[in-house]
Design brief:
Low-confidence stretches: 22-30, 46-62, 230-235
Helix content: 25-40%
Distance between the termini: 86 Å
Structural class: alpha+beta
Number of domains: 1
Number of strands: 6
Largest sheet: 6 strands, mixed
CATH class: Alpha Beta
CATH architecture: Roll
Radius of gyration: 23 Å
Mean pLDDT: 80
Length: about 240
């Protein structure tokens, strides 16, 4: 074998390695705001691995009473939700309450801040059609008045799963959020109409998440939003979509 052939082979091998390293890189810019629920299925499947000593679908799901240690300190699950969580787990073998709570926390921040930015595309993938309609109406009204909002979630101090239940093939989970947020509304000249960028206010919201438990799509959508502190209307950040009885 001549020296030229060996040289060409080395160059070709180097090019292949270089192309693989470049094409294989991801910079995290493909999707600025990924749906926080899309990785639940992959993570929870590890809990239901074939190596489990249990043989049926229900036993392969982590029992509710064992979730506690996996939750972050500011999260808790009320006893009133346990029966419903067990019912959800019987239908969806990949469901895990702790993973849901962490994803719901991320979804809360994304939705609050996307509403402030008027980001309809992001909201459309995280809200049920009726809730999205209410959010879009509020954004459109703000635009007509040439107003802009600056909303930021500074911290979520408490998360409390209040209830969980199933209706036919749907699963629903109600979560109470206590958060510190800055919420500023400005006119077309940049004059502050409401709120303060330098002072965070406490907001208390109760959101209901829902999902078709037999769907391959692991994402939970928000089916209801309401302010749980009716005495302080100034702290309302998103539209109240509570269903009228």
């Amino acid at each position: 074998m001549s020296a030229d052939i060996i040289l060409y082979a080395l160059v070709a091998g180097g090019l292949v390695y270089w192309l693989k390293s470049i094409l294989g890189e991801r910079h995290g810019e493909e999707n600025d705001r990924p749906n926080p629920f899309t990785n639940i299925k992959e993570e929870t499947e590890k809990r239901a691995a074939p190596s489990s000593p249990h043989g049926n679908v229900v036993d392969n799901v982590t029992p509710v009473e064992e979730v506690g240690p996996s939750l972050e300190k500011h999260m808790k699950i009320e006893h009133t939700a346990e029966k419903g969580l067990d019912a959800i787990a019987r239908i969806d073998r990949n469901f895990a309450a702790d993973k849901f709570m962490k994803a719901a926390q991320n979804a809360f921040t994304i939705i609050i801040e996307s509403f402030g930015e008027g980001d309809r595309d992001t909201l459309k993938h995280l809200l049920s059609p009726n809730v999205f309609k209410a959010f879009e109406k509020a954004i459109t009204q703000r635009d007509k008045q040439n107003q802009t909002a600056e909303v930021e979630v500074q911290a979520i101090r408490e998360m409390d799963m209040l209830d969980a239940w199933t209706e036919s093939k749907m699963g629903f989970i109600k979560v109470r959020f206590v958060a510190d947020e800055t919420n500023v509304l400005k006119d077309e000249n940049g004059k502050i109409l409401e709120g303060s960028a330098n002072r965070a206010s406490e907001t208390v919201d109760v959101w209901t998440f829902g999902r078709d438990l037999r769907s391959n799509n692991p994402a939970w959508l928000v089916y209801e939003t309401r302010d749980d502190d009716a005495a302080d209307s100034d702290h309302k950040t998103v539209p109240d979509t509570k269903k009228k009885k």
